[in-house]
Design goal:
Length: 450
C-alpha cells in the first residue's frame, strides 16, 4: 500500500527554535502513515459535470494542462488548439465510468453493441460513422460476437479501429466465443473445449487485428465440457496475453458460482462480468441474483436488450404492439436467443407463440400503452424511457445499446439525461404500471420439512 511521508521541518517561530536539536545537521523527523483508500462509490459519481468542473483548477500559469484534460476524460481536441474542446467531442452529460465488477477495468455506463451495426442494411460508411459517434460521445466499450453476423463484425470493427488510429488504451473490446460461425454445423467447431476456446480467441485476434482482447465472454455454458477445462483454458488465454479478462453471458447463477469455485480451487483467474438480458419485462436475474454475485465474488453486470421486447409502436391502430415480426427477425439475427432454441422452430417462431399466451400479450400491451403515455409526459420516447430505467439500476455497470444509424444512436445516448427525472415518485409510477417487481421466495425452515 502507498504511504505518505510527513517531514517535521522547523520554522522561524521562537518556540520551535527553543526545541531544536543541538546537532544542526540532524535530519528532520520523518513520520510514516498509511494513505486513506479512495472510495469506489465516490469514483462512480464521476460525471460530465464533475469532469468539466475539474477544468476550473488551472495550472499556476492559468493554462489548462493536458494532464487535466486526460484526468477529466476530455482527451480529444479541436484541430489547431490541443486544449480547446470541439463541439463533437465534448463529454456527454450523464455519461459515467465505472469499474467492471470488482476489477480495475473502467468502462462507460453505456456500451455499443455491434450486432445491428454490422448487419444487413448498414453500409461500411454508416457503420464507421456510428462507431465514431460512440467514441466521440465518450463510449469506450465495443461488444462483439462470432455469433452476431459470422466473422464480419470483427473484421469490420478491426478495420475501423485501424483507420481511426485511436489509442489502444482508450477503448475496450469484448468478443464472445461458443460458435465458430452461425452457419457451421460441425460439432468440433462449437462448445467450450480447450481446443475451441484457444482457436476461437486466436481467430478473433486475427480478424480484429489487435494485440489483445480486453474481455473474452463465454457465451452460454457448455454442459458437455467439464468446468475445470473451461476455467483452465481461460486462464491460459489470459496468461498468454491474448486477453485481459474473461466473463460469461447467459449463465445461471449456479453456473457462475461453479466457475468461480473451480477457478479458486485450481488457482485460475476468475470471471469478472456476466452479460444478462434486462428490460422492463425481464428482471428477476438482474435484480435478485446479480447483486448477490457482485457482493460475494465480484462479478459485475453488462446488460443487453433494453428495448428489444415489445417496444415497437403499432402503425395500424395507432397503439403499441408487444411483438412484431421485425423484432423476431432482429432477435434471431442477434445473440439474444441461443442457436439451439432458434434452429428447432425457425418457421413462424411457433415456440414464441406457445411461450407467450394471448392473455399475457394483452396485459403487457396495455402496460406498454401506459408506459408510452408516461414517456410522452416526460417528453421522451418509450425507448429512451426504457434505457433510462435500466440505467437507473445501480447493478448495471454497462448497458449495451445497438443502432443502425447515427440518429438512432444519438437518441439512445440522450436517454442519459432522462435518469435524473426518474425520481422516487416516477419509479413508483412505473412499478405500478409494470406490476412485476421480482421478489425472493419465502424461506422454508428445515424443521418444517421434517
Amino acid at each position: 500500500m502507498s504511504q505518505v511521508v510527513l517531514c517535521n521541518i522547523s520554522n522561524n517561530d521562537n518556540n520551535n527554535n527553543d526545541n531544536t536539536s543541538e546537532d544542526s545537521n540532524q535530519l528532520p523527523t520523518i513520520y510514516r502513515c498509511r494513505a486513506p483508500i479512495a472510495s469506489l462509490d465516490c469514483m462512480e459519481e464521476f460525471s460530465a459535470g464533475s469532469a468539466l468542473s475539474a477544468l476550473g483548477e488551472r495550472g499556476s500559469d492559468g493554462v489548462i494542462t493536458k494532464e487535466q484534460l486526460l484526468l477529466s476524460g476530455l482527451t480529444h481536441s479541436a484541430p489547431g488548439n490541443p486544449y480547446q474542446l470541439s463541439r463533437q467531442t465534448s463529454l456527454t452529460p450523464g455519461l459515467r465510468y465505472r469499474n467492471l465488477g470488482k476489477s480495475g477495468l473502467r468502462v462507460s455506463n453505456i456500451g455499443l453493441g455491434t450486432w445491428p451495426i454490422f448487419g444487413p442494411g448498414v453500409t461500411e460508411e454508416q457503420a464507421e460513422q456510428i462507431v465514431s459517434l460512440a467514441m466521440d460521445s465518450g463510449i469506450n466499450v465495443f461488444d462483439l460476437s462470432e455469433a452476431h453476423s459470422g466473422t464480419r463484425a470483427e473484421v469490420e470493427l478491426g478495420r475501423i479501429l485501424i483507420r481511426k488510429g485511436w489509442k489502444r488504451s482508450s477503448f475496450v473490446v469484448n468478443t464472445k466465443i461458443y460458435w465458430s460461425t452461425r452457419t457451421s454445423s460441425r460439432s468440433e467447431e462449437r462448445g467450450l473445449s480447450r481446443k475451441h476456446i484457444i482457436e476461437s480467441v486466436k481467430a478473433s485476434l486475427g480478424r480484429l487485428q489487435l494485440a489483445y482482447i480486453d474481455v473474452v465472454i463465454v457465451h452460454k455454458a457448455d454442459p458437455m465440457c467439464p468446468m475445470e477445462e473451461i476455467v483452465r483454458a481461460m486462464h491460459y488465454v489470459i496468461s498468454q496475453g491474448w486477453a485481459m479478462y474473461w466473463g460469461t453471458a447467459r449463465w445461471s447463477p449456479v453456473e457462475i458460482m461453479e466457475a468461480y469455485t473451480n477457478s479458486r480451487q485450481f488457482n485460475c483467474i476468475t470471471p469478472i462480468v456476466e452479460q444478462a438480458e434486462y428490460h422492463m419485462f425481464c428482471r428477476e436475474k438482474t435484480e435478485l441474483y446479480i447483486p448477490e454475485l457482485y457482493n460475494k465474488i465480484g462479478v459485475g453486470l453488462m446488460a443487453w436488450s433494453p428495448i428489444t421486447m415489445g417496444l415497437a409502436q403499432g402503425k395500424e391502430d395507432g397503439g403499441v404492439q408487444l411483438f412484431s415480426r421485425y423484432s423476431f427477425r432482429s432477435k434471431y439475427r442477434s445473440f439474444s436467443w441461443t442457436e439451439d432454441e432458434t434452429s428447432a422452430n425457425k418457421e413462424g417462431f411457433t415456440w414464441v407463440k406457445e411461450k407467450v399466451q394471448p392473455e399475457e400479450t394483452r396485459k403487457q400491451s396495455e402496460k406498454i400503452r401506459e408506459l408510452n403515455a408516461l414517456s410522452e409526459r416526460l417528453g421522451c420516447t418509450l425507448a429512451q424511457l426504457s434505457i433510462a430505467w435500466c440505467l437507473k439500476n445501480e447493478s448495471v455497470q454497462c448497458l449495451l445499446l445497438g443502432a443502425t444509424s447515427t440518429d438512432q444512436l444519438y437518441d439512445n445516448i440522450q436517454s442519459l439525461q432522462l435518469i435524473p427525472k426518474l425520481n422516487t415518485n416516477m419509479v413508483a409510477e412505473i412499478e405500478r404500471i409494470l406490476e412485476n417487481k421480482p421478489t425472493r421466495p419465502p424461506m422454508v425452515s428445515t424443521l418444517a420439512l421434517r
